[in-house]
């Protein structure tokens, strides 16, 4: 690629930071208060934030450390460094699954938010929502195909715009905040019949555990700068952008989720329908608050959807260039965009959006698969951090790696078999593509790779049998 085009396609710290914030602040933040109130009282929620925040810091620190020591292909390249080409494929393919499955969920949330401003959209049922979602999906794919720089520029504008309703919410909550409401049941000791439907109080440990799953999803996308590190103007830009993005997210999430505890009771927060933030604003300032927040949801979802159209396409392109996926996915058009990878992802997203017409469970299914997959990717990062630190006797960094893998293992242990089923159904076909890619580049599968493939297939058969027999 000519030097002029490389410069044109490169991303600076600001672009990278907005991609991280833009891809992380999606639909979840607008329901965070209600979901968290159902799971925990203010005290346990605060402890859970400290745990998740520490895990996020460890993840970013690991990415920064490994990025300095190991120049790899984004976040999934570390799995390759630790476990070889097969490791990079598994991590990268699962990361790709996570990205586009999240986009399917974004589509339905966006249509629900637009339905507030266009009631006729709700009256037309699922068909119009799905048709509109598919049109937006292909438009975003076309936008990214025009060049990564132009798409990231629009993402930067959208990120700045959608933060305004969030800041407004924080200001309103801070002005209305009353310490007496916050401390009324700080540890959740009062019986929570209105919250959980029982007359037994929930232990602090259980409240913390329930909060973790809600909070971890909020940091989805924090690794965005790592994936786009090869597009950065300077390697240090990706590392700085990750740290800045993490700090911004932690501050925003903690304020948005904890301040409402001092404005409304936990019962009132937990009983708010989604998007909870809209209804909290309505109770405090009236109808105009709902309009402001729902406007934020539309902008937020479009911005996150745009970012996650860009990142999965980059993933397949890099995997193809690293010879763990067929070369066809590495093809770039004249704008430097991964055209075939974008088309392939758009086709699969179209298929799953159409499936929403036949079932009401597809939104939850897509959201669950997206979150399940990202835990595995983060786990690989932590394992490589531990391996590298042990080999070089950097025991402080080894502890950071442990700080990454502990919350991921904790989350994985909470998964149900049907979540694993969905992930395996999407993961197994990729093994055939991996085998073809290795043959395409003149390399034979190693014994350990064949073992992984066989074990994966057997595990998939077992999980499928549990679901249907």
UniProtKB/TrEMBL annotation:
Keyword annotations for this protein? Amino-acid transport, Cell membrane, Membrane, Transmembrane, Transmembrane helix, Transport
Q: What residue intervals traverse the membrane?
A: 12-33, 45-63, 93-118, 124-145, 166-188, 208-228, 240-264, 284-311, 341-359, 365-383, 395-411, 417-437, 449-468
InterPro entries per the UniProt record, alphabetical: AA/rel_permease1, Amino_acid_antiprt, APC_superfamily
Pfam families xrefs: AA_permease_2
> What Gene Ontology cellular-component terms does the record carry?
plasma membrane
- Gene Ontology molecular function terms on file: transmembrane transporter activity
- Subcellular compartments: Cell membrane
UniProt GO BP: amino acid transport
Membrane topology is: Multi-pass membrane protein
What the entry lists under NCBIfam families is as follows:
2A0302
Similarity comment: family membership: Belongs to the amino acid-polyamine-organocation (APC) superfamily. Basic amino acid/polyamine antiporter (APA) (TC 2.A.3.2) family.
Q: What is this protein called?
A: Amino acid permease
Q: Which organism is this protein's natural source?
A: Ligilactobacillus ruminis
Q: Read off the lineage from the record.
A: Bacteria, Bacillati, Bacillota, Bacilli, Lactobacillales
């Amino acid at each position: 690629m000519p030097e002029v085009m490389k410069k044109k396609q490169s991303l600076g710290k600001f672009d990278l930071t907005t991609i991280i914030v833009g891809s992380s602040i999606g639909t979840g933040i607008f329901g965070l208060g209600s979901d968290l109130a159902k799971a925990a009282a203010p005290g346990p929620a605060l402890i859970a934030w400290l745990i998740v925040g520490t895990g996020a810091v460890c993840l970013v620190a690991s990415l920064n450390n490994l990025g300095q020591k190991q120049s790899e292909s984004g976040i999934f390249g570390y799995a390759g460094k630790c476990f070889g080409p097969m490791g990079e494929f598994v991590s990268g393919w699962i990361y790709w699954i996570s990205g586009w499955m999240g986009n399917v969920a974004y589509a339905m949330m966006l249509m629900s938010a637009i339905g507030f401003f266009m009631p006729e959209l709700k009256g037309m049922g699922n068909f119009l929502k799905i048709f509109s979602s598919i049109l937006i999906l292909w438009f975003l794919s076309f936008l990214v195909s025009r060049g990564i720089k132009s798409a990231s520029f629009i993402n930067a504008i959208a990120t700045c715009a959608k933060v305004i309703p969030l800041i407004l919410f924080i200001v309103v909550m801070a002005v209305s905040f009353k310490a007496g409401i916050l401390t009324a049941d700080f540890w959740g000791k009062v019986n929570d019949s209105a919250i959980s439907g029982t007359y037994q109080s929930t232990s602090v440990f259980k409240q913390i555990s329930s909060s973790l799953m809600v909070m971890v999803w909020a940091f989805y996308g924090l690794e965005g700068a790592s994936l786009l590190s090869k597009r950065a103007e300077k390697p240090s830009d990706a590392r700085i952008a990750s740290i800045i993005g993490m700090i911004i997210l932690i501050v925003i999430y903690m304020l948005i989720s904890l301040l409402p505890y001092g404005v409304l009771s936990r019962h009132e927060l937990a009983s708010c329908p989604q998007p909870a933030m809209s209804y909290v604003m309505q109770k405090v300032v009236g109808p105009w608050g709902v309009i402001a927040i729902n406007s934020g949801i539309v902008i937020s979802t479009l911005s996150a959807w745009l970012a996650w159209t860009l990142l999965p396409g980059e993933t397949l392109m890099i995997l193809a260039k690293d010879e763990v996926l067929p070369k066809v996915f590495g093809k770039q058009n004249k704008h430097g965009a991964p055209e075939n990878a974008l088309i392939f992802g758009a086709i699969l997203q179209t298929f799953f959006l159409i499936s929403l017409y036949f079932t009401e469970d597809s939104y939850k299914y897509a959201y669950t698969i997206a979150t399940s997959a990202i835990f595995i990717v983060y786990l690989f990062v932590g394992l490589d951090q531990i391996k590298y630190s042990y080999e070089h006797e950097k025991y402080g960094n080894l502890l950071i790696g442990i700080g990454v893998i502990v919350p991921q293992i904790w989350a994985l242990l909470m998964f149900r078999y049907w979540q694993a089923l969905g992930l395996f159904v999407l993961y197994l076909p990729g093994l055939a593509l991996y085998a073809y890619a290795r043959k395409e580049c003149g390399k034979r599968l190693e014994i350990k790779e064949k073992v992984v493939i066989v074990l994966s297939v057997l595990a998939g058969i077992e999980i499928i049998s549990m679901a249907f027999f």
